[in-house]
Amino acid sequence: MTVLITLLGRELWRLRPHLPHPELPRSSLDEDLSFACCEAIRRGFQDTVHKLLSSGFVSADCDEGPGLFTEDDDGGSALVVASNNNRLEIVRMLLEWPVNAPRADCKNGKALVYAASNGHANIIRLLLEWPVNAPRADCRDGKALVEAARNGHLDVVRLLLEWPVNAPRADCRDGKALVEAAKECNVDIVRLLLEWPLNAPRADCQDGLALVMAARNGHLDVVRLLQNMPLEQTVEMATHCLGKDMKAEYEIPSLLSSLWAEQNHSSSLSFMHRADFFK
Prior knowledge:
By secondary structure, this protein is an all-alpha fold. The chain has a domain of 105 residues: Serine Threonine Protein Phosphatase 5, Tetratricopeptide repeat. The protein is 62% helix and 0% strand. The termini are far apart. The relative contact order is 0.06. The N terminus and C terminus are likely disordered.
């Protein structure tokens, strides 16, 4: 027992810069050790994590507590931290731990969502293929797909859409993945979503918001992919944006007037009249 305590002391000493300050109000020992375990996972100290779990002082399904992620307040488990930081072997070790192993779908698939957000395809595949309590590829109404599309991870978007069981719809959340990809100028993802053979999002979903976001940010290549949406809706949405974003006042008219002229030379005069509407 003395040897075990000594080993744990050495490992915690390595993590001392990241542990709660001794002068601040401290939580229980269990909470501090859970925090230390999650910090070791974050930094990739696999041996340290193994020693902490083997000691029995920390559970494989331990939770770091609220405040780890800003989007929701339920905190992050050890599995979520490992998935978020691309620690594939630690993810596998946690899931295989013989006592109190975390569920692969813990926190409604939060580990999958954060792996997708960061483009960690190997971890996504491991979680989805886990034989017990695997997360659904469309968990949280397709949030993993939306996050991957926003951050430009084409391989992850394709992996999720092609998953044989419970794949997310390409138009989930009323085309939010398309809107986010268009906003960030992820052209290949925009094209993939629009051309997806099943449940592809409409180019004018959310009243043409994808086109407006692309135009607002000057993403001409994306706007070209979306230009077949009804012009009346484009004008309406662009006008709405002008009242909120002064940047759009300069970018949207020039982009759209250029595209209108491109799309139909025979009606270029009427397009210019439409463009004058923005001045």
